[in-house]
Design goal:
2 domains; 11-stranded mixed sheet; alpha/beta; D-Maltodextrin-Binding Protein, domain 2; elongated
Amino acid sequence: MKWRKWFVTVSLLAVLATGCSQGQPASSGASEPKAESLGGGTAAKEVPDTIEELAAYDGPDREQLILEGANKEGALTLYTSMNQEIAQELVTGFEKKYGIKVTLWRAGSDDVLQRVVQETKAGRYTADVVESNSIEMEVLQRDGVFQAVTGSPVFNDLVPAAVLPHKEWVATRLNIFVQQYNTNKVKPEEVPDSFEDLLDPRWKGRLAIEETDFDWFNTLAQTLGEEKTIQLFKDIVATNGIQVRKGHTLLSELVASGEIPFALTVYSYRAETDKKNGAPVEWYSIGDAIARPNGVGIMKTTTHPYAAMLFYEYMLSEENQKKMLELGFTVTNKKADPSLEKLNLKLVDASAILDRSAELQKIYEDILFQK
């Protein structure tokens, strides 16, 4: 599984930080407003001339400056691991609102990580904005590719956990892990109330899990007890087996088709979409639901800093977050969803996971592949 080496070799990526600080474009050149004083008072601010200055700028004309600069640039490139159809719908909304073209490149989170790392190392500055899973975003943050944003007023509208201390990426949405089953394959009385129920021989050959969800497993283990959880899942695999599939969308599709009766880790929005579309599925959570944040960050090497900032704040805005909510996402903007602070969720700690990534991946793989 090619993506795994990117986590276990994080220390090697540090060499790229030099590449990010040398020879990178500081601005988009002639398309940006030139620095000048605003107003005649002693408290006048300078018009931001670089992405660093723009990210910290909090002047009263901030919104106007960003919009004008973005219109001059006219375009940006987004790398995302979001579902292609949904990502395109959100991008189309932005393009219609602002008339700014977005080049969208979508892939799995591991492939997004690899492409950003490879392009940064090669001195190619294609991506302006990156939106992906928290662990991959944290890898890139530690590598120094993201610009910290400190002057954005939209942060005040987000749940506190969405804004990380380093402010180099911010959570846009939460992927909530749930269990999904096919109602034609699983009878109501069979639905498990606990993970221990999966030891029952009735589940032999009927279970599946997504291959990269070691962060979910670790968060579950911290709740139930690490040794207990590891032994429990070893026993489940030994007794009944757990099929492994790559991709949460694929896993949900296989449940909907009936090929897999019961999946341990799918995303709630996808399971709900399948259900609304008439698939014979139900979903729920065994115990507290575990959520993986997804976030957005602006590349330090952006060649469209104003357009990148405009898109970044649009992703976090009440308007866009309401649209994401309608599409089934759990969002992070409190104005878009006032019930956010009442949710009983356990969030994956991306930084803590990353500190033990090689160890946790190995534990997860050893269990699933009976090593």
